[in-house]
Amino acid sequence: MPTSILTSLALVLPFVRLPYSFGPIHPFGILVGIGVALGFKLAMRRARALDLDLERFERHVVWTVAIGFVSSHVLDTIFYHPEVLLSRPWELLLIYQGLSSFGGFFGGVVGFILYARRHGVDPWRSADAIAYGLPVGWLFGRMGCASIHDHPGALSTSPLAVDWPGGSRFDLGLLELMLVPMLIVAVLFVARRTKRPGALITTLALLYPPIRFPLDFLRASDADGGDVRYFGWTPGQYASAALFVVGLALLRRTLRAPADPAPPPSAAA
Known about the structure:
Strand order of the largest sheet: 1-2
Strand content: under 5%
Number of strands: 2
Order of helices and strands: HHHHHHEEHHHH
């Protein structure tokens, strides 16, 4: 039986595309904005529980997120669309033209470290406060990806595939969206068990790669509108492997840290 007929008979998820834009406003941007707002609110709540300077922490978050967004687009262009650098290099300045999750992580880390060193911020407690809100923000970000189907996967008749125009295939944004709640539960669980500096950021660094790495094997090939491969792996898989190694180093450091941070002088007085 032809593949097209098998695909049409398969029980797959419907392909739903929200209206892409209402003038300058579009679903992806709205969902990402909601995610940033909710993630920030949760991060501030955790910062308060960890006795951080809230005004300084707020600036720290803004600095981290801003550099993360810029890096997200720049690295997406360099690693996923290298041909653009030669034909249309000015697109590096068009931040809204494509974003890379790991590119955002990398830039965010750079911005985080620069601000922490310049302003003498406790990096571990500040990182944990950000990590407390990050999975919720990530959930809405992946909702945005699923709403515009910008991460096409391989053709499939799996019940988790989407009835894509031209044949049912996996939607990697949707698949990851289904798994992100596990990160939220894990972070909430660890946060209730300890305030050990570094515990939450370590949790994310260890748990996200096992979600992301295998999913990338389900992506469409670059010739079919998916991600480019370098020696068989996507850039996201290389980044996942690197993040997991970093997570192991963070785990070693976190387990050696005191169980709870010492209270600030104002609290002890």
